[in-house]
Specification:
Layout: E1 3-6, E2 9-11, E3 14-16, E4 19-30, E5 33-39, E6 50-55, E7 61-65, H1 70-76, H2 85-106, E8 113-117, H3 124-135, H4 137-141, E9 148-152, H5 157-166, E10 173-177, H6 186-196, E11 203-205, H7 211-216, E12 221-223, E13 227-232, H8 242-252, E14 256-259, H9 265-278, H10 291-303, H11 313-325, H12 330-337
Parallel strand pairs: 8-13, 8-14, 9-10, 10-13
Antiparallel strand pairs: 1-4, 1-7, 2-3, 4-5, 5-6, 11-12
Helix pairs in contact: 2-3, 2-9, 5-6, 10-11, 11-12
């Protein structure tokens, strides 16, 4: 029997992420969406022995044992029904709701390691930091040291070791935001893998003499009991570098992995519209625009998707700044400042 790893799916609205099942029947499609039929294996008590795991498409799971059944190939070559804009926005909103829930779970040790993958400027970091801020509200009011830290940019292996020690206590959360350079350094990667290990004890070592560690009073070995969130723009399925693929697979095997499924310019634009929709116009709240002007900005972005330097919420706010500067000539300013040259 084939064994599959469901990277991202759900069963009765309960997220199913990086979970193995014995496959009974391959990808099928119906009015309620797409699903695969698997053996429950006791994961969902009081449910039938065979369950249907809902997935978006064949990229949400992979075969890790046995062979793919014939029906998968048959489904993949069949015509795919295009989801509507509203359906796509609901899909994206669901993924970000899962991100919020998973980030919240890291604050109490429910989740020890998570990787979040998605393009820049769609709110990955904002959502995570918002959940950590909420969890740290009482620490902030009491003027206590916060139990989380967000690291951005490059970091050395020694800096990584020292930062992990600083947040090694239980219920501490360390967020690496676009620190992809760590993945290309073998020493940093080995330290990170030790911190993310799924075993009961996560022991991290520094086996070289370091005056900096001595000066800071950091031991050459410690147990890491905190949680780590790794936020990246890397699209794992599209990597060409074999070395980076191997590194990321090693991390994925230790972590919960959440792909926000924002893969096209249309998806990026719909994410912007979804945030605006769900926040009741909150995307432009500070600008005091009329609803008509908000619609004009979003329509301008939609019409010029291929020409804009970036499709992101940051870009929407840049254009809103131009509207504020020049309500009559903002489109001309946008063409000169935020659009690619022909």
């Amino acid at each position: 029997m084939s064994v599959v790893l469901v990277k991202s799916g759900s069963y009765r609205n309960v997220p199913v992420i990086n979970t193995q099942f014995k496959l009974v029947k391959g990808l099928q499609s119906g009015k309620t969406g797409n699903w695969i039929t698997v053996e429950n294996g006791g994961l969902f008590p009081n449910q039938s022995s065979l369950i249907r795991i809902k997935v978006e498409n064949q990229h949400d799971y992979e075969f890790i044992g046995g062979e793919a059944p014939a029906e998968v190939t048959q489904f993949v070559t069949a015509p795919v029904v295009q989801e509507t804009d509203e359906q796509a926005m609901d899909r994206i909103a669901t993924r970000f709701a899962v991100l919020d829930e998973m980030a919240r779970a890291t604050t109490n040790g429910g989740i020890r390691a998570m990787i979040v993958s998605g393009p820049p400027g769609v709110g990955k970091s904002f959502g995570v930091e918002q959940q950590l801020e909420k969890a740290s509200m009482f620490d902030r009011l009491a003027n206590r040291t916060l139990k989380y830290e967000v690291i951005k940019g490059a970091m050395t292996a020694l800096g990584l070791y020292a930062t992990l020690f600083k947040h090694s206590d239980k219920n501490h959360v360390l967020v690496f935001d676009d620190c992809d350079s760590i993945l290309m350094d073998d020493l940093s990667l080995n330290i990170l893998k030790a911190a993310l290990d799924s075993g009961k004890r996560r022991r991290i070592y520094w086996n070289s003499d370091s005056s900096m560690l001595r000066r800071e009073g950091i031991p050459d070995a410690f147990d890491f009991n905190g949680s780590v969130i790794f936020i990246t723009n890397i699209k794992f399925d599209h990597l060409k570098s074999k070395k980076l693929q191997d590194h990321l697979e090693a991390l994925q095997s230790r972590c919960h992995f959440l792909d926000l499924t924002i893969d096209t310019d249309r998806d990026k634009m719909l994410r912007i519209k979804q945030v605006h929709r769900d926040a009741n116009g909150g995307l432009f709240r500070d600008y005091g625009f009329e609803a008509d002007m908000e619609d004009q900005v979003l329509q301008f972005m939609w019409d010029n998707k291929p020409k804009l330097r970036e499709l992101s919420m940051r870009m929407a706010l840049k254009i809103a700044d131009l509207v504020k500067i020049s309500p009559d000539n903002w489109k001309m300013l946008a063409e000169s400042t935020v659009m690619k040259r022909a």
